[in-house]
Amino acid sequence: MPLATADAVVAALWARWGLGSNCHGVGSVRRRCETVGDLEILAPLEPKANDRLCARIEATMEPADPGVFAGASPPGADYIGRALRGLKRGFLAASLVVRPYGVDVPVQVYRYTPENLGWMLIERTGPKDFGKWFLGKWKIAYGIPTGDPKYQGSVDNHLVNGDRRVVPVATEDDAFTKAGIRPVPPERRDAYLEHIQ
Could you please report the per-residue DSSP string of 32-81? Predict the structure, then answer.
């Protein structure tokens, strides 16, 4: 879909789900690509017992049992899509489909913690090869061997040092600084990759 359409859908989801300034639109929307294939959202992880975001999203999704209304919303229902997988209290990642303008749009919602927001913003903004490049630089900065998958720079979506201890990165700039590299704005990451390869 065109970027302008994606922006409108993101704004509608923000309003419908009550997303605040602690939530972030990422992926190709954040990179300001001309066309967008899906929408990705970062939101803070909430305790399973009191996961308000999950409850708000669930209230807008069609029931999982297709026999409930056989594809047509019951009277008074105001569903905007359906959950494909992962939507449960305390979820870390959920895949949904929303239907603005009568067209199915895939939506991924990822949860972050205060210790990994900076890395999640880099990884989920993409492109994928940019995240790989960043992790390579991170491993060099922390003395983690490169070229061997058993030595990881990220464990459970948290950046780690050579001893596999979490290195907190509360912001994207914090992550770039701790990796020893200059921040690259989201809208320049695709071109930056072409330049360094």
Answer: T-SB-S-EEEEEE---GGG-HHHHHHHTTBPPS-GGGTTTSPPTT----E
Q: What is the full per-residue pLDDT of the chain (197 aa) written as tens digits?
A: 999 999 999 999 999 999 999 999 999 999 999 999 999 999 999 999 999 999 999 999 998 755 444 455 554 567 999 999 999 999 999 999 999 877 899 999 999 999 999 999 999 999 999 999 999 999 999 999 998 888 999 999 999 999 999 999 999 999 999 999 999 999 999 999 888 86
CA dist 184 and 197 (Å) reads 15
Pairing state between β 105-112 and 39-44 = parallel
> Cα–Cα distance between 158 and 135 in angstroms, integer?
11
